[in-house]
Amino acid sequence: MENLKLSALDLATVCKGDSPKQAIERTVEGAQYIEQLGYERIWLAEHHNMEHIASSATAVLIGHVAEKTSKIRVGSGGIMLPNHSPLVVAEQFGTLESLYPNRIDLGLGRAPGTDQVTALALRRNNLNTPFYFKDDVKALLHYFENDDPSEKVRAFPGEGLAIPLYILGSSTDSAHLAAELGLPYAFAAHFAPAMLAQAAAIYKEEFKPSSYLAKPYFISCVNIVAAETTAEADYLATSLFNMFAGIITNFRKPLSPPTEKVIYDGIPEIERAVHSMTSCTFTGDTNKIREEVEIFVRTYEVDEIMTTNYIFDRQTRLDSFRYTKEALSY
């Protein structure tokens, strides 16, 4: 646990009564604050056609956050590679790395980050791109590593830059790929925990050392709501649980203030679905967070915890980042 790294995932979530601009300002504020606390990195996630998420132009937002901070690593959690040409991604992140040297991460996912209709719009009538994920990751690595001036297509900026690549996943497919390529692996336990144990085991067992990584490096993204007291944390967490209920029922709302009871109280079908999606959620004071996360880290041999923070109030959100850092500092 003494070597555990702590990071954050942000979607520039729009809060009730706010605009996308204000959501982005919250993201910047959070990044600046956790930089002061000593967090390792902050990642922004690519999603599309979601009214209350402002991180769709992920590379643009990464540049904005990097410009407003000075040392924290900033990256994608992730870029949904099937939506993009590997060349374009290489050029975009080559540009970011040129502007903010040794601070940019490139996390890659194979899902579209949206619904199928929007995916079709993004992919210009080609829904087969996820099947080429492995080839696209290899192409991207090649653009960064190419040293052959006779290559007909090259990435500028990008070529020769050591931008760390991470494979993201919420099932076992990406675990196999990350292990095969010898790349670090990040699992989305914050919303899809069902295959966490299986994916973690596959990655560790099948990992092949590479020029990028000598041994497995496993990141798990989880939800953490930390507060001065466990009762307060449980209350604050209703915003998160209510948000997931909206996702499940396809009745999405902006992030809203906490409620005395979750909005699905007394509806067992929704309660079971929310519990299933959020079983890797930790709420409590620093002692409770420390105890529960320590068990989680040891169980799944986690090298880095990446936390979400779906808390409505701005200052309370920052306080949760601080309590989380205190809980996981050894």
UniProtKB/TrEMBL annotation:
GO terms for cellular component: cytosol. Coiled coil: none annotated. Residues 18-255 form the Luciferase-like domain. Signal peptide: none annotated. It comes from the Bacteria. GO terms for molecular function: oxidoreductase activity, acting on paired donors, with incorporation or reduction of molecular oxygen. InterPro entries: Bact_Lucif_Oxidored, CmoO-like, Luciferase-like_dom, Luciferase-like_sf. To bacterial alkanal monooxygenase alpha and beta chains. This is Luciferase-like monooxygenase. It comes from Sphingobacterium wenxiniae.
